[in-house]
């Protein structure tokens, strides 16, 4: 993986994680070694974190003390704190509106943060871990990552059906994240009135259009940076005003600055 060009402020920031970031429609994989503490934060995507070795710690609003685990599933918009304890971790983010996201929400209904048993966490991550050690290309890694999500979600075909108009709107927006997007123009592409589209979008995705766009742009910017662009270039190509805007958003979404994420050298593990 190409090393991201360093921004001046990156030299002064601690490193929270070293690894790879791989995205696909409806999700992404962040895999590598978690080094630092991720402070209190919440995000719209469902988060699945699976230790590939050892354990990590998590604290949520539902309990006062830190808890140690090999695997967890965090529901959308639930505040939590995360300490990777320096171990190798695969973290997957899943859009709640997707088929797999709906299946995860159904299975873990009633939980804000669900802690997995060691057996289930290991079963979900073992194939992904083997491919990571083999330095498997991104496209195949994405397939194994989605397989891990399916194992935890159960049978995605049993999840509630999704409206084809919202699926089409999401695809249309993902192809245009670098420019401003207005609700009215998205609604027009799927032949709905703005009011009807707004209502349907919230009912299907569980969030507002503005919040979804912020998440999608953040995810795309991180993917661009890990493909070799500087954080400034990644910010502009994902529709942020500048790198500072990207940094503020990343802190709000993931609890850390983007410069705290370091791509690994695929010629050798860091």
**Number of E-type strands:** 11
Low-confidence sequence ranges: 1-12, 266-270
Distance between the termini: 13 Å
Q: What's the helical proportion of residues? A: 40-55%
The CATH superfamily title of the domain at 8-160? Jelly Rolls
Find the CATH topology of the domain at 8-160: Jelly Rolls
Give the C-alpha Rg: 18 Å
Lateral strand order in the biggest sheet: 10-7-4-9-2-1-11
SS-based class:
alpha+beta
Order of helices and strands: EEEEEEEEEHEHHHHHHHHE
The total count of helices amounts to 9
Question: Which descriptor suits the 3D outline?
Answer: globular
- The CATH architecture classification of the domain at 8-160 is Sandwich
Q: Any idea of the CATH class of the domain at 8-160?
A: Mainly Beta
Mean pLDDT: 85
Beta-strand residue percentage: 15-25%
For the biggest sheet, the summary is: 7 strands, mixed
Protein name: Helix-turn-helix transcriptional regulator
Domain HTH araC/xylS-type: 167-264
Keywords: DNA-binding, Transcription, Transcription regulation
Organism: Rhodanobacter ginsengisoli
């Amino acid at each position: 993986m190409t090393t991201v060009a360093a921004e001046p402020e990156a030299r002064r920031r601690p490193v929270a994680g070293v690894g790879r970031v791989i995205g696909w429609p409806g999700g992404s994989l962040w895999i590598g070694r978690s080094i630092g503490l991720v402070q209190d934060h919440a995000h719209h995507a469902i988060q699945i974190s699976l230790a590939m070795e050892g354990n990590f710690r998590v604290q949520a609003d539902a309990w006062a003390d830190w808890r140690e685990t090999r695997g967890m599933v965090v529901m959308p918009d639930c505040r939590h704190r995360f300490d990777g304890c320096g171990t190798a971790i695969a973290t997957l983010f899943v859009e709640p509106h997707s088929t797999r996201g709906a299946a995860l929400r159904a299975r873990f209904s009633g939980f804000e943060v669900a802690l997995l048993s060691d057996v289930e966490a290991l079963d979900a991550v073992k194939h992904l871990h083997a491919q990571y050690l083999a330095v498997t290309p991104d496209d195949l890694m994405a397939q194994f990552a989605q397989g891990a999500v399916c194992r935890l979600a159960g049978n995605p075909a049993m999840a509630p059906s999704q409206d084809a108009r919202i699926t089409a709107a999401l695809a249309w927006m993902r192809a245009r994240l670098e420019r401003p997007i207005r609700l009215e123009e998205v609604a027009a592409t799927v032949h709905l009135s703005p009011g009807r589209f707004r209502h349907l979008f919230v009912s299907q995705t569980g969030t507002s259009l503005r919040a979804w766009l912020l998440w999608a742009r953040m995810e795309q910017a991180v993917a661009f940076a890990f493909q070799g662009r500087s954080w400034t270039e990644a910010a502009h190509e994902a529709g942020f005003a500048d790198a500072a805007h990207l940094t503020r958003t990343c802190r709000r979404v993931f609890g850390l600055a983007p410069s705290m994420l370091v791509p690994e050298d695929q010629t050798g593990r860091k």
